[in-house]
Amino acid sequence: MSPHLNRALGPWQLLFTGLSAMIGSGWLFGAQRAAATAGPAASLAWLLGAFIALVIAGVATELGAMFPVAGGMVRYSNVTHGPLIGFMAACANWIAIVSVVPIEAEASVQYMSSWSYPWARQLYQGGELTSSGLAVAAVLVTVYFLLNLWGVRLFARFNVLVTVFKIIVPTTTAVALMTSSFHAGNLVGSDLGGFMPYGLSGILTAVSTSGVVFAFNGFQSPLNLAGEARDPGRTIPFAVLGSVGIATIVYLLLQFAYLGAVRPGAGGWAGLAFSSPFAELAIAFNLNWLAMALYFDAFVSPSGTGVTDMATSARMTLGMQRNGTMPAVLGRIHPLYGVPRPALWFNLGVSFVFLYCFRGWGILASVISVCTIISYLMIPISAVSLRRTMPEHARPVRVPAMRLTGTLAFVFSSLLLYWARWPLSGDIILLLLMFLPVYAWFRRHDGWDRHRIACRHAVWFMVYLPTIAALSYVGSRPFGGLGWIPYGWDLAVVAAVSVLFCEWGVRSAMDTPDLSVITEDDDLPAFGGH
């Protein structure tokens, strides 16, 4: 019995972890929130979000196949730019994933509140969970934790079964609604303010904050579980890109079904408010069998995602411990079950804190989305940097035109952050900076020379974050700014500034990447070519 992670996940199991993470509470509420923000053009928001996710995920697969380690998404930047940037990127990524665990439980309880029973209606009131609702959500989070406690094989078997069900129910829902009531004119916005009633900015904001980025964030799960994947060079790209493609089809079907079934009144698309959108529509069209299936799936879909992200966040915590910014106890792996149990316990406690502080799906989804965007920023920077500093290193997956693709991925990430609208974009950046004292504590024994080197490689990132926040503050009014930069020109300015910072970030990488933060894992295969 060796205290190593078990490489027990095959290509389909890894694919299902990505799908399970993507098709969770996002499908229960994402279509409604996207329509409220973008109107009939919400379908374009999903297509744009999928394209951006594919670009970023494609770049990430090269890193994941190069370094198939536990919690890979929180470790790549530490290899290329040192511990300070590594810590900040890891914090954003970890927050974005661990906070998904309570949000999935909240989604289940919120759907449950639309049951006809008086006790159920007491679970969710005034846009947030009540005390009894919080208690039920806490029980669900505990179940997610327990399903991860006894090994990756139990988690994988549970996940495959749940994911198959999670694909069938949303697809059936979309088809049933479209065959029961479908107003084709809604898709083009006839008599409802047009196809883009909230303008292009509505589409872009929907991508950032209405659950689109939140939904596609699940592509990270196969990368963070890469330390337990068989043949990572083949399974990782299959799982990452395949899960994004399948999820895109499912979400587009659901968006078309929602737009076609609903006839908004004088308040327009933004005036619609359902506590359980698809279930309430099913009841309105006398599809009681579908409503029952949806109420059941309201537990299954979010729970599958919650279980997956509990597993993923534990591996990310393990990765942060390997980076030297988490206590040593969180890096322990159970000798029999091969899972990081202390990390699971830690993330269970963090999930309870998020559950108490953010009691509504919509509020927490916006926070997660912006943290997710920040976590994307270092993926292309690290990938492009390694092409320069380690050109001969074996790459089982090689992204074509990496310099161009990586720059495009960074620009997209910056635009997503800007589209999130002021002041949310600035608030999340401030939250991230508040974690710096934690970094200082864990790295307090580093000598001055090591701190100076870490800061030198991080200067560009420390300048980048307030720069984007400032652009968001003075940007156009459709994105919450003061309007000093006209609408349209603001997008061009953010893109141009992003290209400059991308170049600065790549040039700031260490000439000799620190592979010690990767190769110290006991159970890693040899890295060919280096």
UniProtKB/TrEMBL annotation:
InterPro entries: AA/rel_permease1, AA_Transporter_AGT. The chain crosses the membrane at residues 12-32, 44-70, 82-103, 123-146, 158-178, 198-217, 238-258, 278-296, 367-387, 424-442, 454-475, 487-506. It is found in: Membrane. Gene3D superfamilies: Amino acid/polyamine transporter I (1.20.1740.10). Pfam families: AA_permease_2. GO terms for cellular component: membrane. This is APC family permease. One of its GO terms (molecular function) is transmembrane transporter activity. It comes from the Bacteria. The keyword Chaperone does not apply. It is a multi-pass membrane protein. Keywords: Membrane, Transmembrane, Transmembrane helix.
